[in-house]
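Dear H.,

Thanks for agreeing to be a second pair of eyes. The structure we're designing against is below in token form, covering all 165 positions.
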């Protein structure tokens, strides 16, 4: 009696094996997605907790007002420049860490011009940071909020109390 499989049996065995491999690939992909979601959720909670610990007054704000606060305080030239600087520093650190501690060059890569999120004109300054655009023209925004000691561009104003010094 022969133990050799027929061609049809070998084809069926390979199809079964293929289905098992595809199922394993799908399982691993789902596991990877779950790990990435967990990392993202942890990052979001950690950063949100940091904001609430540094600015406890934001806790009572509605989602809409908190969103407005974040846009007003970060989506300006100062915020974009600060973010671009931090991103460049992080990329330089990451490059140094991934190349075994040696940096290939002293100068960071040339930042690229970023267009507005709504497909508008590219920003005048070259920046690696995204340009947020909530539909408001930044030139039309007031230079200082009503009760803020700092201007919305992050610079100190002459008088935080409004005494006109």
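And this is the sequence the design step returned. I haven't edited it by hand at all.
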């Amino acid at each position: 009696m022969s133990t050799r499989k027929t061609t049809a049996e070998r084809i069926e065995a390979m199809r079964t094996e293929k289905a098992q491999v595809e199922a394993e690939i799908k399982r691993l992909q789902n596991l990877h997605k779950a790990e990435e979601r967990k990392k993202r959720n942890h990052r979001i909670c950690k950063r949100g907790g940091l904001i609430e610990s540094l600015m406890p007054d934001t806790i009572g704000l509605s989602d809409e007002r908190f969103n407005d606060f974040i846009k007003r305080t970060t989506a300006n030239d100062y915020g974009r420049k600060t973010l671009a600087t931090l991103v460049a520093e992080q990329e330089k650190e990451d490059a140094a860490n991934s190349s075994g501690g040696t940096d290939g060059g002293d100068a960071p890569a040339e930042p690229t011009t970023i267009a507005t999120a709504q497909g508008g004109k590219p920003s005048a300054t070259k920046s690696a940071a995204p340009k947020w655009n909530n539909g408001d023209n930044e030139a039309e925004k007031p230079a200082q909020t009503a009760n803020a000691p700092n201007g919305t561009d992050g610079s100190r104003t002459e008088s935080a109390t409004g005494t006109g010094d």
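Two observations from my side: Residues 57 and 120 are 34 Å apart (CA to CA). Residues 75-99+111-133 form one domain.

Warmly,
E.
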